[in-house]
Amino acid sequence: MDKFISRSMKTPISVKETAYNADQAALDFPPGAEDGYWYLARNKHLYSQLKKYCSDGSPMLEVGCGSGIVVEFLRKQGLDCQGCDLSDQAAEKKSYLFHATDANDLEEGYRKKVKTLLILDVIEHIEEPVPFLKKLQISFPNLEYLVIAVPARKELWSNYDVFFGHFRRYTMEMLRQEMTEIGGRVLTMHYFFKLLYLPGWLTVKLLGKRNLQVGAPQSSLSRALNRIPAAMIRFSDWILPRQWWGSSLLTIVKIDRTKE
Fold first, then answer.
1. Among 35, 49, 132, 161, which lies 20 to 30 A Cα-Cα from 12?
2. Residues 163-197 as b or e (16 or more Cβ within 10 Å = b)
3. How far apart are CA 69 and CA 85, in angstroms?
4. What pLDDT score was predicted for residue 174?
5. Which candidate, 6, 10, 2, 3, places its Cα nearest to that of 162?
6. What distances in angstroms separate CA 69 from CA 34, 57, 81, 225, one per listed residue?
7. pLDDT in tens, 12-69
8. What is the pLDDT of residues 122-168, one digit of tens each?
9. Torsion angle of alpha carbons 235, 237, 242, 247, nearest 10°?
10. β-strands 184-192, 248-255: how paired?
């Protein structure tokens, strides 16, 4: 797949620039990030889609779970979710978080039980995501659903994408093509974080760069205040048409095993 070229840098993103290191992870998952409006809104949106399309009580695994923010949230909602990550970002070791672990290397018996893989803001870091996704399909022989979230819209490309090692920001057409290549039947594909699109676009156009630090409220008041924009984001995502542009894309695909 062609690399997306930054308008500000005018140079293609290299493999070296996509290395996701400890410094980047510290900015991406600071303590308390789970109470920030971005994670609050995304977690609730994700949960609503899982309930609608693929919540049958079978085990779920988040591939590239970071510090485990999504896993923790979904488990509190009663879903059987675990997570794995190549890095070791968890402040506290927990039995349902496999860190410094490749999903393809998990115990075979467990991999056979998993029917849903969550791959959230991961494949934009991978130069060739289709082989990556196909390998996961082989490693998880009873996989039925892939739930994928990615950053969206090329015009929102900024220093944030360069710093965090993104190869691309997606459009629906780009993501649908990749899902077709892996033999997935799209159950839903839609933009979300629609309320953030215009502020993001204006930031890139007027300032030329974004703040790299993910917000992490620390006080009780700050945590309470973050629920307000989270609720506004959720409401706008619900009321606006699904084709309306947002800063992120979500798709859920059904894996067709008959084509293998």
1. 132
2. bbbbbbbbbbebbbebbeebbbeeeebbbbbbbbb
3. 12
4. 97
5. 6
6. 6, 20, 11, 19
7. 333 333 345 555 655 566 777 899 999 999 999 999 999 999 878 889 999 999 889 9
8. 999 999 999 999 999 999 999 999 999 999 999 999 999 999 899 99
9. 160
10. antiparallel
Query: Closest by alpha carbon to 229, among 39, 91, 7?
Result: 39
pLDDT tens column, 212-253: 777 788 899 999 999 999 999 999 999 998 789 999 999 999
Residue spans per domain, the chain: 19-259
HEC assignment per residue over the chain: CCCCECCCCCCECCCHHHCCCHHHHHHHCCCCHHHCHHHHHHHHHHHHHHHHHCCCCCCEEEECCCCCHHHHHHHHCCCCEEEEECCCCCCCCCCCEEECCCHHHCCHHHHHHCCEEEEECCHHHCCCHHHHHHHHHHHCCCCCEEEEEEEECHHHCCHHHHHCCCCCCECHHHHHHHHHHCCEEEEEEEEECHHHHHHHHHHHHHCCCCCCCCCCCCCHHHHHHHHHHHHHHHHHHHHCCCCCCCCEEEEEEEECHHHC
CA neighbor of 168 nearest in space, from 200, 204, 140, 127: 127
Second CATH level (architecture) for the domain 19-259: 3-Layer(aba) Sandwich (3.40)
Q: How far is CA 106 from CA 39, 82, 131, in A?
A: 27, 12, 19
Q: Is the entire prediction scored with pTM above 0.85?
A: yes
Locate 7 and state its tokens.
Answer: 């308008």
What token pair was written down for 116? 């849903």
